[in-house]
Write the structure tokens for this entry.
Amino acid sequence: MPTFLAFLRAVNLGPKRVFPKDDIRRVVESLGFEGVATYINTGNVRFTTPMRSRARIESTLEAAFAADRGFDVPTIVFTQTEFRSIAADVAELAAAHPGLARHYVSLLKDELSSAQAAAVEATSGDLGRMVVRGRAAHALLGDGYRSGEVDPLAATKLLGVATNRTHTVVTALAERWC
């Protein structure tokens, strides 16, 4: 059976969208998925399933999460191969841009059109650079970035459904699960 990695958007960010990793694991297992594992409490889960359609897996998970939590939980799914490629891009971009203040990776539900990707990359400026590769958009933030600043390049609104992870989390997940 193929292995997938799912990333939940906007969970555990405040008192109303709480979804602990043990509950995520329980819900995913209740669907009959196997080999379920979670990593830190930001909505990262690995599993195997005989399903092959990413859209079907995402909608199945989203329906189960909403039923369990009472709020929508957008979910973005990758194969191990797809996620390994994202992690390779993270390593390549980090090597090409030493000394970054931050490197965030927005994991995208849908690949952007070339025009959308160009618009995202056009938000690059003094604070940093946006790079789009497949279903990932990398925010490479330089010295002008202030820690805790949300969306300093104003690119998020252009990404569609997406969830952020740091380069550290992406690298750790690829090492553990790919």
Q: What stands out?
A: Residues 51 and 57 are 7 Å apart (CA to CA). The chain has a mean pLDDT of 95. Helices lie at 21-30, 54-69, 80-96, 114-121, 167-177. Residues 81-177 form one domain.
